[in-house]
UniProtKB/TrEMBL annotation:
It comes from Methanolobus zinderi. GO terms for cellular component: cytosol. This is B12-binding domain-containing protein. InterPro entries: Cbl-bd_cap (IPR003759), Met_Synthase/Corrinoid (IPR050554), Meth_synthase_dom (IPR036594). Transmembrane segments: none annotated. The lineage of its organism: Archaea, Methanobacteriati, Methanobacteriota, Stenosarchaea group, Methanomicrobia. It holds the Pfam family B12-binding_2. PROSITE patterns: B12_BINDING_NTER. Residues 2-96 form the B12-binding N-terminal domain.
Length: 105
């Protein structure tokens, strides 16, 4: 059940934060909250998980993150995506492109 204190923006921010802090439980929780709140999964992914990945990528380019952190962040995103996959519509399944990220659902 969605926490009534969490706004849609809070849930999206939680997803972004989960990627940056490499917290798979937070990613899964944010994804479930997004579903419970009725957020569009693709919009949630783009604004939450993908933005977090973009921030990790920017940190890598600045020398403030390692390649290992990028791989770990992608694993965290995958944990959140696993929660979303059963609820994605048929048109959303398969390959999805989010900026420079391609995922095979």
């Amino acid at each position: 059940m969605t926490d009534p204190k969490l706004s849609c923006q809070d849930i999206i921010e939680m997803a972004r934060h989960s990627i940056i802090t490499l917290d798979d439980k937070e990613a899964e929780f944010a994804a479930q909250e997004a579903l419970d709140a009725g957020l569009d999964p693709v919009d949630f992914i783009e604004k939450g998980f993908v933005e977090g990945m973009r921030e990790i990528g920017d940190r890598f380019e600045e020398g403030k993150a390692s390649l290992v952190q990028i791989f770990a962040a992608s694993r965290i995103m995958d944990a959140g995506m696993n929660v979303l996959k059963p609820r994605l519509s048929k048109k959303d399944k398969g390959f999805c492109f989010f900026g420079n990220i391609a995922m095979n659902a």
